User: Fold this.
Amino acid sequence: MANSGSGDSMTDRVVRVLETFTPSRSVQTAAQIGRRAGLPPSTAHRLVGELVESGLLERDDDRRIRMGVRLWELATRSSHTLRLREAALPSMGRVQARIGEHTQLAVLEQDEALLLERLSDPDAGSNVIRVAGRLPLHASSSGLVLLAFGDRDVRERILAGPLARTSAETITDPAALRRKLAEVRSLGHAVAPGSIEAVSTGVAVPVRDETGEVVAALSVVLPRRAAVDPALVELRVAARDISRALGHRR
Ligand code: PHB
Assistant:
């Protein structure tokens, strides 16, 4: 892709424009997008105009800009995560029916746990994460599973720190994290009480594909006082069924 005068590529600029949208900032003016993306006003207006033209962004009745449904359509329909989501949803529904609270599916993405799907009871307890949100690998139950069973390079990179604290109970000591990951591998699940937020416990298990590789973490987020064992029983059955649906035979 051609470079602009300032050295960043057109792709960089488009990504920066798209990254200005967040759950709490879903509509913006072209000028706000430009400022937040670090683009000169004329460039921002032209680029936003082109993206609206293509449907990747949309203009509402007040001429403010939001993400285009076309972007979701293109990103979703051929995504390899769609297969994973489709394989997981029936089992996630069963876990959710038995345990309530929150049932979630996450994958490793750029050294973080990216949430692909979440089912939540209307009366469920606290949860800091939404679909398409990210959790730190060392602090969340799904992240611990993805780290423990994942690529050695990723594990060593995360262990090299820094290990940011998200609550008083987050593991921030590399040696303690190494011990926790060994425990997760030997138990086959991760329990993270109060690690992301003091009031919740995350419980997660690995999901494997036909090669046996761990491709996702299935988890529940429970109120701190809730029993972990019933959730673990359901999660294990569900992870086995999802792994089978993905072609894993063992
Ligand atoms: C977790 O996966 O450990 C987790 C996720 C979200 C929360 C709490 C815990 O709000």
In short: Residues 80-99 form the longest helix (20 residues). The mean pLDDT is 95. The longest strand covers residues 214-223.
